[in-house]
Design goal:
mainly alpha
Length: about 55
């Protein structure tokens, strides 16, 4: 019997959101995690604050 290839575990919704935020606003993963902790999952709020953070860098 052939073995099935090992696949990475599926990403959680939060991990996908973090990656999307990092790419869209050019911030670090840690910054994205902090924003999600403070603001929740509202994309408009997250991207607004992430862009403010990226301007400060």
């Amino acid at each position: 019997m052939a073995e099935e290839p090992i696949q990475p575990p599926p990403r959680t919704d939060e991990e996908q959101l973090i990656r999307r935020l990092v790419q869209a606003a050019n911030i670090t993963e840690d910054q994205a995690r902090e924003l999600i902790t403070v603001l929740g999952y509202d994309w408009a709020s997250l991207i607004r604050e992430a862009r403010i953070l990226s301007r400060k860098a």
